[in-house]
């Protein structure tokens, strides 16, 4: 089951058609991977997709190898043209980053395709992320390179991938496509913006699912299973899942399982309630324990809880004290000064109450360094929204 993702999905496809590099970013679990995979199904069927599910622990050398393997090359790390196994790449500031050089050869049945064009040499060495022969081959074979979980990339990886994209940009590829995905509310944390690649990158923020998108999943799913679900129950699912596609899916499956066994197949409010309990117990036990430890049971204002709620409902993942004050002032309907919040905020960053939150220092473009607060575990954000929505239903 897949709900189309509106404007973001259209922009994504448009970017691909125009030869731009879509950079999809957004909160944990919001559906980035699903959307991108959905849009490149054709390439996948035709074995033109190079899907790097996570760039964590990968080097750009590994990625080039995967591209060549998809085309039909066999990779050996033995290098004949050089003495050493690794070369280095100079990046901005003259820093040298090692690059694991390798040799690629077309062997066996795959070599039948050799000779198609002069491009496809049977054997060659790759010793740099800017190797233009690899990009030419990717272009010739119309590869789609999907780099997922960019937020887990090492700084070295980011530098080298920037160089690769620059080479790509200079080639004006018509068929080779690159897609970048990462969990962040801020695209500039995922890639290094560089004048050489800026014109090609298209940022595509993916936000929480709209009510219509969530409702589509519920209605389509229940109709397929011939289950009747009252609008009021569907509305509760929409509200509690607060735009998290995996949560909508989970609650629907739990409810459907109960209702399916019944005659007539009608979903009840009890089904909904037990689906929520099941989610907390089976899928989010750890988050729930942590959340309960973090919030206070007594106290008039329950500041720690207010802070977590404000953090969870914030569009941005990196929040300043000022933004917190504004938001909690709105929540409580009375003026809350930062002096009231700084103690509870500090507690949420300590082990006694979690830690659920942490400090991040950021200074961009010569600006002064600012102090931000963010969640230690990004999954906590949607979870807290769910808890709050659950309390309100
Ligand atoms: N458009 C959609 N329609 C229906 N279900 C979806 C949709 N998008 C995502 N899902 C469901 O939500 C789950 C999480 O989605 P996905 O893994 O694509 O999110 P993500 O943004 O890539 O997450 P992460 O930040 O962990 O990389 C999927 O397993 C799928 O069940
Ligand atoms: Mg993903």
Q: How is the biggest beta sheet arranged?
A: 5 strands, parallel
Low-confidence stretches: none
Globally, the shape reads: globular
Range of helix content: 40-55%
Distance between the termini: 27 Å
**In total, how many beta strands?**
12
Give the DSSP E fraction (strand runs of 2 or more residues). Answer: 15-25%
The helix count comes to: 16
Which CATH-level-2 architecture of the largest domain? Answer: 3-Layer(aba) Sandwich
- H-E string: HEHHEHEEEEEHEHEHEHHHHHHHHEEH
> How confident is the prediction overall: mean pLDDT?
89
CATH topology of the largest domain: Rossmann fold
CATH hierarchy, class of the largest domain: Alpha Beta
Number of domains: 3
Gyration radius over CA: 25 Å
Q: What ions, cofactors and ligands are bound?
A: adenosine-5'-triphosphate, magnesium ion
Strand order of the largest sheet: 2-8-9-1-10
Question: What class, by secondary structure content?
Answer: alpha/beta
């Amino acid at each position: 089951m897949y709900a189309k993702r509106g404007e973001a999905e259209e922009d994504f496809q448009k970017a691909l058609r125009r030869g731009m590099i879509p950079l999809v970013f957004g909160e944990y679990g919001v559906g980035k991977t699903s959307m991108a995979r959905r849009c490149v199904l054709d390439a996948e069927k035709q074995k033109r997709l190079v899907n790097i599910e996570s760039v964590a622990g990968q080097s750009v050398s590994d990625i080039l190898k995967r591209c060549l393997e998809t085309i039909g090359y066999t990779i050996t790390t033995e290098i004949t043209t050089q003495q050493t196994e690794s070369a280095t790449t100079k990046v901005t500031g003259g820093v040298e980053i090692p690059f694991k050089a390798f040799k690629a050869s077309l062997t066996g049945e795959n070599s039948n395709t050799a000779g198609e064009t002069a491009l496809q040499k049977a054997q060659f060495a790759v010793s740099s992320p800017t190797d233009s022969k690899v990009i030419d081959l990717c272009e010739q074979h119309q590869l789609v390179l999907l780099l997922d979980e960019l937020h887990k990339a090492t700084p070295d990886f980011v530098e080298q991938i920037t160089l690769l994209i620059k080479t790509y940009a200079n080639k004006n590829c018509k068929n080779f496509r690159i897609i970048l995905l990462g969990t962040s509310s801020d695209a500039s944390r995922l890639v290094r913006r560089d004048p050489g690649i800026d014109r090609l990158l298209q940022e595509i923020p993916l936000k929480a699912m709209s009510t219509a998108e969530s409702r589509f999943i519920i209605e389509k799913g229940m109709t397929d299973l011939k289950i009747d679900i009252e609008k009021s129950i569907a509305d509760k699912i929409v509200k509690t899942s607060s735009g998290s596609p995996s949560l909508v899916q989970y609650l629907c499956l739990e409810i459907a399982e109960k209702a399916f066994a019944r005659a007539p197949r009608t979903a009840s409010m009890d089904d909904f309630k037990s689906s929520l309990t099941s989610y907390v117990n089976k899928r989010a036990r750890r988050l729930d324990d942590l959340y309960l430890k973090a919030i206070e049971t007594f106290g008039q204002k329950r500041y720690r809880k207010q802070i977590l709620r404000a953090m969870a409902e914030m569009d941005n993942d990196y929040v300043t004290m000022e933004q917190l004050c504004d938001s909690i002032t709105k929540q409580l309907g009375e003026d809350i000064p930062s002096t009231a919040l700084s103690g509870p905020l500090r507690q949420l960053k300590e082990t006694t109450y979690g830690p659920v939150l942490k400090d991040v220092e950021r200074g961009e473009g010569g600006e002064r360094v600012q102090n931000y607060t963010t969640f230690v575990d990004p999954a906590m954000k949607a979870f807290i929204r769910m808890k709050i929505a659950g309390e309100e239903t």
